[in-house]
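BUG: 3D viewer hangs when loading the predicted structure for this chain

Environment: internal workstation, default settings.
Expected: structure renders.
Actual: progress bar stalls at 90%.

Input used:
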Amino acid sequence: MRSEIGVGIIGTGFMGKAHAFAYRSVASYFPESAMPVLQVVADVNEAAAEAAKAQFGFRRATTDWRDLVADPAVAIVSITAPNVLHREIALAAAAAGKHIHCEKPLAPDATAARAMADAAAAAGVVTQAGFNYLQNPLIRLARDMIAAGELGEITSFRGIHAEDYMADPQAPWTWRLDPAGGGGVIADLGSHIIAMARFLLGGITHVNADLETAIASRPIAPGAAERRNVEVDDIARLTLRFARGCGGHVEANWVATGRKMHLAFEVAGSKGSLVFTQERLNELQFYRVGDDPRHAGFVRIEAGPQHAPYGRFCVAPGHQLGFNDLKVIEVAAFLQAIAGQAQGSGEAIGPDFREAWEIQKVIDTAIRSSASRSWQAVS
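Structure tokens produced before the viewer hung:
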């Protein structure tokens, strides 16, 4: 008999739904994993909680996340609430002995992120941070190629995460703009491209950043005449130094008109280059120095069953993985880490709270750097 594990999800928005889809799907694609059981869903909006219960088959709904954390049927707490709430929920979950999956950014600042990581470690629970784009089999291939020296000595990294969901000046003020939750786009989108940079090339040691607020105020509600000042960044531009010796540039931008999911990078080395964009997430472009100049150029590597775990989703190449599939892979890694803990290893397979803390340190350093108009060491 397959073992079952109870899940509670806090939040019913875009990411709450993505978590529910993933937990419901993972055992079909990864039959060796435990079977998640959707026990409790929590949302401050009672109607939203009840709607999620009905849609996904949760056994019950609540408006109090503390009730969810205290439920003995819940072994995993998934946090998809606003950033400012992450620390309080995670500390309570760790104290209750629950494994924790938390969306990015982990916390408003590195101090809170470290407190979360330390509490989870002290409690002996497994953690996962929601950097699901790193679960793409082609991103794993890119890291393997870099580690194997196929690109030679790495000379530069250029990365961007650009979308346009905040481009309209009449878009109302939301929790994403609350400075109590940390930075603006540097935290919301910047955390993803910083995570990608670290995943591919390792630690970042120094940052020189310029954070810009492009839209100074926004309506307090849809259609309202009254406006509220924006105190966080809309565009973040970072120059980086990596521990391995190379430099790089990163941009995060949520007012990039026309862009919907431009999470992209280019890694250049002495023997070749790799290029990727999430807008074509099943393709990786590879240039190799030394090819016959008559037909030299970037070669498209297309995702297929040869890039595990693509084959679990489809046996045919070219049929494409999607966003929710990456979330399923992320949840599978989380469940595998939990199972490993029960077997005596407990090794983190996806980015855990410790790695999320390292990413948050880079974000905090960027904010300091922009304020001081100077290079800052990541510390």
